[in-house]
Design brief:
With about 525 residues, the protein is of the alpha/beta class. It has 14 helices and 17 strands. A seven-stranded parallel β-sheet has the order 7-11-6-1-4-5-12, sandwiched between helices. The protein has a five-stranded parallel β-sheet with strand order 14-13-15-16-17. A three-stranded antiparallel β-sheet has the order 8-9-10. InterPro entries: DHS-like_NAD/FAD-binding_dom, ETF_a/b_N, ETF_a/FixB, ETF_alpha_N, ETF_asu_C, Rossmann-like_a/b/a_fold.
């Protein structure tokens, strides 16, 4: 007999439970109970698969006592007394002796990969876990906060002010800094909206280092401390930069949670869910509270998706985390008189975290910042017939304005066009506009030969006035354009340049706008 009642379990929980049952008769009873109850196809397949597994082990009477250890899983996080230690306490499966005539002394030891994903698949929340606050990893460079760090702090402040009005509880914005000489930046984070700024200083961490940064930030989130009387953060924001993407995935993995990457919209609200995988019961609707809605362009390139960190019944992954595209939000105006708590976080960092020494490196130029320009002229794959001339025409238009610069769609950056002369220096990733590039909001944005995929839209659709030039009247960019000019950019750009130089741009736009 067995106390496994399939009606009380989701399919995933049932799959874990039946792996501990070694009696096929008991499994038959579970299968009958499922058929008489909810009669879920997937659940029945899980039970039958376990029955088939046991029967295959005993075919021909070859089963031995060693088979009783097969199918065991390591204890999940909820079963370990101290989850922060990450201890793995369950016994490993016995080594296989399937090679005919193999001597016991030649048997291979279990490599620990018998069930390589089983323990992660069935991670449970901390028992009676407590989750609070919105954490913001504030990336720095050259001793200064990146703009995206300031933007995330501003958005976090806005979200948590709304959170307090909706849910109460006085939850905070916590800025997280790792590096060398971080105290002054911690104070700046308070002025920019944080309630708490926790930092770790180490001269070896002046540059981003994968292993120590991950371990330190994850330890901050898990540690017991006077300033943090909870198990893990409720929410965690990271910048969608090269280093931020690296760190966010590693930290969220360490914290047994997930990640929504490259987000450009955030909100916190309740959500009514009817998916039985999430609710546990078909046909039942359950309201999940305080869910971070993370909006990002989907992989099709034409729509937005909203990601929710909602997991199965009796399992709760926190923190709900995401990386944020630079330029998506506005930083709040710094208030030097704003008060907050600053915490210096100490942790022993083993030498083997610093096994790789960066002896020397090249420093890139300051790069191209398009975000402060009055006008951005962006070009796309429409220059394909003659990339060199197309870029030259766009640069002529840029020069006609007092404060303008050239931007590129991702299509131009990745196309490997054969460009000649001085224009070659302008075809670089640092000029890319969009989800994985810069996000700009100029008073005037001119898009020439750009189709308008959602990844590009993310980077420019907050511009005050958008003029697009395209031969395709059905191009997606037309849907979010103020003035659409049907025409070949090789013909239209020179006319726009002449009009700007003559002070007549408005007349040309009115003439060509349909």
């Amino acid at each position: 007999m067995t106390d496994v009642n399939p009606g009380d379990r989701t399919v995933e929980e049932l799959e874990q439970d039946v792996q501990t049952v070694e009696d096929t008769g008991a499994l038959d009873e579970i299968l009958t109970s499922e058929e008489e109850g909810e009669d879920r196809k997937t659940a029945k397949e899980v039970i039958q698969a376990r029955i088939d597994e046991l029967e295959s082990q005993t075919e021909g009477g070859d089963a031995t006592e060693d088979t009783e250890t097969e199918g065991e899983y390591e204890e999940t996080a909820a079963d370990v007394e101290d989850p922060d230690e990450g201890a793995e306490t369950a016994s490993e499966s016995e080594a296989s002796d399937s090679d005919a005539g193999a001597d016991e002394e030649d048997e291979e030891e279990d490599d620990g990969l018998t069930h390589p994903t089983a323990d992660k698949k069935h991670v449970r929340a901390l028992e009676d876990g407590v989750y609070r606050d919105m954490w913001v990893y504030c990336e720095t460079q050259g001793g200064e906060l990146l703009d995206v760090s300031k933007e995330m702090l501003g958005k976090a402040r806005e979200l948590m002010d709304e959170y307090e009005n909706e849910y109460g509880g006085d939850e905070r914005v916590v800025a997280v800094l790792v590096g060398d000489d971080m105290r002054g930046l911690a104070e700046e984070c308070i002025a920019l909206g944080a309630d708490v700024a926790v930092y770790h200083d180490d001269e070896r961490l002046k540059r981003f280092r994968h292993k120590p940064y991950t371990e330190i930030v994850a330890d901050m989130a898990r540690a017991e401390a006077d300033w943090k009387e909870y198990d893990k953060p409720r929410y965690f924001l990271f910048p969608a930069t090269n280093n931020g993407r690296d760190l966010s995935a590693q930290v969220q993995g360490e914290l047994d949670s997930g990640l929504a990457s490259d987000c450009s919209g955030l909100s916190i609200t309740n959500e009514l869910i009817s998916n039985p995988v999430k609710t546990g019961t078909p046909g039942e609707k359950v309201e999940f509270e305080r869910i971070l809605h993370m909006k990002r362009p989907d992989f099709s390139g034409f729509e937005y998706s909203t990601i929710l960190c909602i997991d199965n019944p009796n399992r709760e992954f926190h923190p709900q985390g995401c990386s944020v595209i630079p330029g998506s939000f506005d930083a709040m105006e710094a208030d030097p008189g704003r008060e907050g708590e600053i915490v210096s976080y100490d942790i022993d960092t083993p030498d083997d975290w610093y096994r790789v020494e960066v002896a020397e490196w090249d420093t890139l130029d300051t790069g191209v910042d398009l975000t402060g320009r009055e006008v951005v002229v962006a070009i796309g794959r429409g220059i394909g017939d003659d990339p060199t001339e197309g870029i030259e025409l766009a640069l002529d238009l840029v020069d006609a304005f007092d404060d303008a610069d050239l931007g590129l769609s991702r299509g131009v950056v990745t196309a490997s066009y054969n460009v000649e002369g001085h224009v070659e220096q302008y075809v670089s990733e640092e000029r890319q506009i969009g989800e994985t590039g810069q996000i700009v909001q100029p008073p005037l944005y001119i898009a020439a030969g750009i189709s308008g995929a959602i990844q590009h839209k993310v980077g420019m659709d907050e511009s005050e006035t958008i003029i697009s030039i395209n031969t395709d009247t059905d191009a997606d960019i037309r849907d979010f354009t103020d003035y659409f000019i049907e025409g070949d950019l090789f013909e239209v750009l020179p006319r726009l340049t002449d009009a700007v130089e003559a002070g007549e741009l408005g007349a040309v736009v009115a003439e060509d706008d349909d």
